[in-house]
Write a structure and sequence with these properties.
285 residues, alpha/beta, globular
Length: 285
């Protein structure tokens, strides 16, 4: 699989955050947020497409990062991985990067982080695209619900059994399926003693975030910027109906479903997603 390396680090309030910047330094800044249980790796195709498009007017300076507790960023037992805390770190990064009103594209629980940073903390965006976003209850698969209720038991699973269950779980996020090398890369951060503990820690935290979602959803009708709601039509983790409900709550939000894609839309249909994003971003010019 193509190499994906985050070359920079930032010492956040929740520990080291690995990040990178790609594209034309003069381009409009765009930040890509991943969700649970993924990392910035899911954005590699879209990030490269948005920085190499032959249309200079929509070419972006793309920022990617692994949230604390995910991917190559710090994973510690005491980390607060709540959506509220992660929204705080995102606000820190926007300030650290010196961005004023970037475009933001957010997937899964990254959607709740981006929404919370905007409506709860006042972080300004130019445009916002929400991709299969955790934004309204309910969300998650049956496995997600089961793990959330029995986290301590799952954390004690033997490594090989954890690995097998982890792979089967991640596969269900994709509609067409994942190549073995992609599956290896997506699950690698969650292997070993530290990775296994971190995996169940962040899943358990997502189960505890409902009150945060209830709080920020009251701010959705007041969002005053262009918003694209993009969804995999075959999403079994956060069904497309949640996307339609979300679009109805945000004034002027554009709903867009992509066939042949599950929850991992950036992985399942990166070309179609990039085309939708380019159309959305181009409308700003």
């Amino acid at each position: 699989m193509d190499e994906w390396t985050l070359r920079n680090s930032y010492e956040s309030s929740l520990g080291e955050v690995r990040w990178d910047r790609l594209g034309d330094p003069g381009g409009q800044p765009l930040v890509l947020l991943h969700g649970t249980p993924f990392s910035s790796l899911i954005w590699r195709h879209v990030a490269r497409a948005l920085t190499t498009t032959p249309r200079p007017a929509v070419r972006r300076l793309v920022y990617v990062f692994d949230m604390p507790g995910y991917g190559t960023s710090a994973m510690t037992e005491a980390q607060d991985l709540s959506l509220d805390a992660l929204a705080g770190v995102f606000a820190e990064l926007i300030d650290h990067w010196g961005l004023t009103s970037p475009d933001v594209v957010a997937h899964d629980s990254g959607g709740a982080v981006a929404l919370g940073a905007h409506v709860d903390r006042g972080v300004p965006y130019r445009r916002l695209a929400l991709v299969d976003a955790v934004s309204l209850p309910p969300w998650g698969s049956e496995f997600f619900a089961l793990v959330g209720e029995h986290t301590e038991i799952f954390r004690r699973l033997p490594g090989p059994l954890h690995r097998a269950m982890l792979r089967e779980y991640v596969i269900t996020a994709s509609s067409p399926g994942l190549r073995p090398d992609v599956l290896d890369a997506l699950t690698a951060p969650w292997l070993g003693a530290d990775g296994q503990a971190a995996f169940y820690r962040q899943l358990a935290q997502r189960r505890a975030d409902l009150t945060y979602i209830d709080r920020i959803r009251d701010g959705y009708p007041a969002i005053d910027l262009p918003v694209l709601v993009c969804w995999g039509a075959d999403d079994s983790w956060v069904p497309a109906e949640r996307g339609r409900e979300l679009a109805a709550l945000i004034p002027g939000a554009e709903p867009h479903l992509i066939d042949g894609a599950g929850h991992l839309l950036p992985e399942d249909r990166p070309a179609e997603l990039t085309a939708a994003l380019l159309t959305f971003l181009d409308a700003a010019h």
